[in-house]
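Researcher: Re-running this chain for the archive, since the previous output was lost when a drive failed. Same request as before.
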Amino acid sequence: MARLILLTGTSGTLGRLLAPRLAARGYHLRLSDIVPFPDDLPEHAEFVQADLADQLAIQQLVRGTEAIVHLGGISVEKPFAEVIEANILGLTHLFEAARIQRQRIIFASSNHAIGFYERSEKLAVNDPMRPDGYYGLSKAYGELLGRMMFDKHGLESVHVRIGSCLPRPTEARHLATWLSHDDLERLVVAALEAESTGHAVVWGVSANQRSWWHDDDAARIGYVAEDDAEQFAPLPEPGDDVTRRFQGGSFAAIDYTRSEVDQ
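Model: Regenerated C-alpha cells:
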C-alpha cells in the first residue's frame, strides 16, 4: 500500500515542485497551505487548506498520514511579529501533532540559520548557529525543537538546511549554495525512506566543488547529491559589501547597521 505523506507549504515554489515528483514516485499525498493550491492536483493527492496557527486544524491535518514534509511558513526575511505566528507557533503545533501521531518530520530549515559566518569559513552542522535575521532565527528554533522532541519523546526528524534551490545558479554565491531540483527530490525521498534518522541535520546542497558546508548526517539517511554548480561558472557577484562577505548573502545585509569599526 502506498504511503500517505503530508506536504505543507505546497502552494509555494518548492511545494509545487515536489508535489508532482513525489506523486510520480508512487506516494499518496495530502497537500496543505494557507492559500489554495494553484495547479492541477497530482494523481492520488488531496488538498486541505489550513493555517499553521490553528492548532486544532493542524492536529486534524496530520491525522492518518505516515510522515510529514514541512515546507510551510514564512520563507523570506520579515519583521518578527510576522515570522513568529507561522514559523514558531505554527511549527510547534505541527511538531506536537507529529509527536501525538508518532510521525517523522522532514523540516525545511535554511542556510540562514548560519548566515553570519563569513564565506571564507568551512562549516559542519555541529558548529554554532549564527542566524542572519528573524527568518534564520526561526529556522534555528525549528532545529532545536526537533532536537528536544527527539531527546524527550523519540520523535524522528530530518532538518534540511536548504541553500539556494533553483533551476540553475545565477550568481557567484550559488556556486557554493546551489541545490538542484533533482537533488532536492533525492534528499526528501532519502529522508522519507531511511529506516531510522534520529535527529538528523543535512546540508540542503548539491555536490558543489565550492561548497562551504560538510560533515552532516547525509550518510545516515542515505542522501547522495549528484549535481554540481561548477558547470555554470563563472557567475557575477551582485550586492554590497555585507552581501558579499557573509554566507547568508542579501539576507545578512537586510537592516544591517553594524559599523566597520565594530567589525
